[in-house]
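Late entry, evening session. Most of the bench is empty. Finally got around to the prediction I had been postponing all week. Sequence below, unchanged from the version circulated by S.P.
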Amino acid sequence: MRISTNWLKDFVELAPPVARIADRLTLAGLEVKKCEQLTQPSDTLFEIEITSNRPDWLSHFGVAREIAAVENISLKNPVVDSEAGRTPPPGWKIQIKDVAGCPYYTGVLIEGITETQTPDFIVNRLLACGIRSINLIVDITNYVLLEVGQPLHAFDADLIRGKEIVVRKPKQGEKFALINGAQIELKPDDLVIADSDRAVALAGVMGGKDSEISDKTRNVFLESAFFNPGRVRKTSRIHQLSSDSSYRFERRVDPEGVDLGRSRALALIQKYAKPRYMSAVIKAGEKPQLDVKTVHFRIEEVKQVLGVEIKPSQIASILTRLGLDAKPHSEGVLKVGIPSFRPDLTRSIDLIEEIARIYGYEHIPETLPVREPLTVGESPRLVLERKVRNFLSGAGLCETVTFSLISEDGLDPVKDLKQAVQIVNPLQHGLHWMRPTLVTSLLTVIQKNVNAGADSIPLFEVANVYSAPDAHKHPVEERVCAIALYGKKAAQTWLDAARAVTFYDLKGYVEAILKSAGCADLCVAKIQKNYFAEGIAEELRTWQTPLAFLGQVSEELLKKWDLKEPVYYAEISLEKLLAQSQKVRLFQEWPKYPAIERDLSLVVKGLVKGGDLITEIRGMGQGLIRDVELFDLFRGKRVPEGCKNLAFRIIYQSAERTLVSDEVQKLHDKIAQTLVQKYQASFQI
């Protein structure tokens, strides 16, 4: 942005040389990239770089206020119109139908303009800042925008139908002719200024062709309003329109500047356009308020943060020069009122930053910390991931890294992608889904390796999967470990032989990871997933929390990826595993007393879960059961239809004494009878 030093002198006295002012502003955070000297008329221009959090610098008055704070000099306010003693314009009214888009709107009717020549000083100042002169009224609105930062818009009042201003959303399929001659179709989230019949301006962005000011205009309706920054930004991006007004509205104009900018423009119009009539201000809505209006600031925090002693009176002076209302509140505490043009100040640390830059960073000595750096413990999640990686790579699996964006190939739109996250503007054609699972990613890796001649492909990947269970909330990101086995399992020693991988190789890896993390009482449940073969898919749980699922990839997916051998796939939720893992493992002394083993074979109905039986057996063990293992499952001719035979090995052992056979047998028989009664089991095969 270009700033005229001649213009700045209307508000502050600039002591020469002006290059020194430029250096002081840069050191205070308002970067002056270069100084340019003009000869006709004589002037010096500052080319300044403004950060997105300081829209108050987007005006000469805002920069002058900064210079006054840095140089500790007085600041003059712009000359404004009193707006007193005038009557409302007959028949005119303002209606806001979209308060979220425009919380505050004001307007003034100006009639009988007698002068149309723009004064030379306005023309020269506009040209110095890169804006050409158009006509007096438009030049004044541009002048006020550059002077105080408030965008204004002037309508030809004779072209406003119905003497009515309506702030609303566009109608379905409504089109709008811009002031630059282009015609656009308005979007549902746009905000328009309309009269009783049609849209006359695209709020905060650009005026319309049907109501623009011309050399013949003698009656003007002057607009000054506050528009929602997000809405203006979205409209500007969608329609690829940018203007000096949208640039400021996008970054949030000062709500108090709505009245200041209007009054400043009226003073200039009254002086140079010499209108016959100016109405009272018509207002609609209310000015938006800051979320944080006051901050209770402890003066001692300045030394704690900056490491330098600054006098309380100097601190209060700096804050006051910045336009803040700093008053004593209690011993060592200031109550600081935040002005409307500084919404970025919400905490004490923000005020300390302001004090530091005005005091001067060059005056703050460089010192080393007075205490040793705090040691930060390693993240438990990273520790778990490292253990999983070490285990799987040590078992012979290869780690892979795949892209997070996938296509819908191989995934069912209803079952697999119902809660998936879709990318509106994908970086690559076809990859418009954030992957809800890694199965298709690993299948692609397997396919590439098979095409390269590999016959043994054990893979794993630790990565994120994404889902959107609630459309009104942010998507969920979950860390998982995916394992895929294909082809042969290599021989471990010269005594072994290579063989095809099986589902139980995969299950062994998954169970080993879960148990090494300290998850006890694992149980298995049958599940169904679209990309698994029917009947060959399981879920491992602990305390009813699903930790992992595994299965054999369906024939349809194998054909789609042109794979001839089975693929076994598993996915472990590392976040759930971390939550359920045993943080501290207690050392257990090796048993001193011998154990007694007993087997128990039962015929139960097919729906009875082995995990429920194991839990029941442990609960009746009276502290004498060390372990229960399901070692056999049989369905066949000797087992009734709809039933299954389960065989358990129960290990009885006491840590305090030697168990006798009769005692164990009585407990064993009691357990068997209880299971028979509770689960309608039998011992016959």
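Two things to note before I forget:
Residues 661-679 form the longest helix (19 residues).
The first strand starts at residue 2 and ends at 4.
Will write this up properly tomorrow.
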